[in-house]
Amino acid sequence: MEMTELEMKETIQMIYERLDKVTPVDFDCGKLCGEVCCVFDSEEYPNDELALFLLPGEELMYEDSDEFDLYYMDARELEFPHSWKGDVCLVKCRNPPRCDRSIRPIQCRTFPLVPHITKKGKFHLVLDDTEFPYKCPIIEDNIPFRDDFLIETYNVWKILIQNPLVYDFVDYDSRKRENRKVDFEIVI
Prior knowledge:
alpha+beta
């Protein structure tokens, strides 16, 4: 049974509220790195090109926002699974890192963790091993996560992967990560 837009927006809002109650560490990790994941800027990776793709339905949270710009790209132009047809919604903060934190994307809220599905279909979380043009001190310095953050992030992604498109993306991304070394995983 498909969700209505209102049901989808309510679900995303509930997920945002759950993730608002937890943080990766006991302090503002942005103080360690000067909020580099929000403001990184270089000739090769200009900040004005920094955007995140949104999960299906998440774009509904940004309809009336003055702080974020929405735009769309054809899924065929991106490295997305074949089940993602048509446009993928991306969001860009107009004034990083001073965004409306109440609607920052799920990927921002759960970073530096990403969902992962093994070949046998087992779900767990891993550290994001994407090659960024900057270093995340939490990853680099092996700073331990708060348990409530780990548990809530796990539970939220378990909800999210019930959507077939999200599951397909996580599975697709996991296949790309199979040959990468995963130093750390969370299995709950």
